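Project standup — Tuesday

K.O.: blocked on the structure for the chain from last sprint. Re-posting the sequence here as requested.
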Amino acid sequence: MARPLTQAEIWRAHREAFTLALELGCTPKEATREIARIKAREAHRAASDRLAAKMAAPLPQPAFEADESRDPQPWMMRD
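H.V.: unblocked you, prediction finished:
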């Protein structure tokens, strides 16, 4: 996980952890772990959605058509 770059981002992360700790009734360190777990779950869900969209897309058509009527034998059997 990337570290916050500015002091404001650091304090924002501390405040978010403290607020969640108050809601959950745990320590801010445990709340920080919970926030990381939530962000990882959201990232996994987003990646799964992107993969599902990619898998649902139709396959691309080949740029050329193979002419099998000319020589029906496999390439290794041709003269």
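K.O.: great, moving the ticket to review. DSSP finds two helices and no strands in the chain. The helical segments are 7-24, 28-56.
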